[in-house]
Amino acid sequence: MAYVGTPIDTTNTFQSLTGDRFDGDASETAFTLSTAPASTLDIEVFVGNVRQDPNSAYTLSGTTLTFTGAPPSGTNNIYVVHQAKSVGTIDPPATESVAKTFSGGVTMSGTTTHSGTLKVDTVSENSSGNGVAIDGVTLKDNGVVLGTGGINFPDSQTASADANTLDDYEEGSWTPTSASISFSSATGRYVKIGAQVTCWFQINFPSTSNSSDARVTGIPFNPVSQNGQGVLGNINNTDIADVRVSADSGNSFINLRNEAGAEKTNANLSSRNIRGMITYLQAAD
Amino acid sequence: MALTKETKIAQIEIHGDYKHICIVKDTFVKEDGVQIARTRHRKLISCGHINDWSSKTFIETDISAEESDVQAICNTTWTDEVKTTWKNKLIADKGL
Question: How far does B32 lie from chain A, in Å, by closest CA?
Answer without folding.
Answer: 22
